[in-house]
Amino acid sequence: MLACLYPWAAMATTLQQAMDIASGKHPQLRMAEQALEAARADLTEQSAYAYNPQLSLEPQRRKRNGGGTSNDYYITLSQGVELGGKQGYRQQSAQANVDAVGQRAKATYLRLQTEAARAFVDLYYAQKTLLLRQQQRDVLHQVSQAVKQQLVVGESSQLDANLASSAYTAALNAAVVAQQALTQARMTYASALGQAQSSSELVLPQLATDWQAPPDAYEVALASRPDLASMRAQRVVSNAQAELAGAQQIPDITISAMSGREAGDQLVKLGVSVPFPVFNNHKGAYRAALARADQVKTGLAWAEQQLRMSVKAALTNHHEAMQALAGMTNADEAARSTLTLARQAYDAGELDLEELVVHIRQSLDARLTVVEIMQQAWLARIGLAEVLGHPEYILQGSK
């Protein structure tokens, strides 16, 4: 039914599909495209001349003192003239605004891709976490039931029964919390893709630990980040607005030509109207425009400085996450083996119940640690690709 209402609402099962859907038909992307269209329309408006010619016709019927009447008329054509290059500054500002809005649309595209990738990874590992919590719940439930049966026949103590029941209750609560986290992850994932629901079958490739970021990472980010490009275009906008505000201090003139007849005489008149900036000379607007231009310039410099720190932090996080991922060889298999050996030792009487519960929890903690390491490795890769402005880096080197 959803596919009929929203043909683009395909169910993404891979990370690449999720990124493609988010960056293809997401409502936020359409909003960015609409903002770009509005900016282009404004460019058309600002490129036009500010004043249209005006034509006025004034017919007049006059009674003469000596008797009789006179039919007079006046036809006036006037045209405002912009001085100080105002039209050029408006056009320059509007063109730079088109560039800024276009770069913001690209920034939205990048953000949607990275948000979709991050939500995909979070959902994938939320499913893994829930599965492990459910397995722990089921194992401890079996242990609790077995201890209760042993208590009935006198082969176990009430203390052991209470311990097994307490461990099962804690595992049951952890499974409920994991289910709630999975539900939230599904909602976040569906929102990241701009859809009403999400797929439950997700496939995530293996992340290669030997992939390296470009050696000139900061320069790559500086040249690639669309949000910085948008700020540079916004600086051009603010500078043009400051120039326009300065030009506004030069008053525009109006040239007029009049032709008419009065009392039988033909009249022709040329005139120039010049306003005097006595009460409002626009100096305040000019100072405000200069301050805003300085503010944009300062903001751009600060953003570039922050980018350097962000690139350094992202590279460090990625390096450490890849090292952790490379160092967990066979950790999951070892945790599985620990659980199997612990149950065998308990059945053989080599472990008491408390030791068995400890081993079960340690085995689960080890497997959850493996899941967390893999998740953090993916999130570090996504974060690095986002900082560098290259979402294609997310899947480079994956298997």
From TrEMBL:
Any one Gene Ontology molecular-function term assigned to this protein's record: efflux transmembrane transporter activity
A Pfam entry, by short name: OEP
Domain of life where this protein originates: Bacteria
Entry similarity comment: Belongs to the outer membrane factor (OMF) (TC 1.B.17) family.
Name this polypeptide is given: Outer membrane efflux protein
Organism, as annotated: Mariprofundus ferrooxydans PV-1
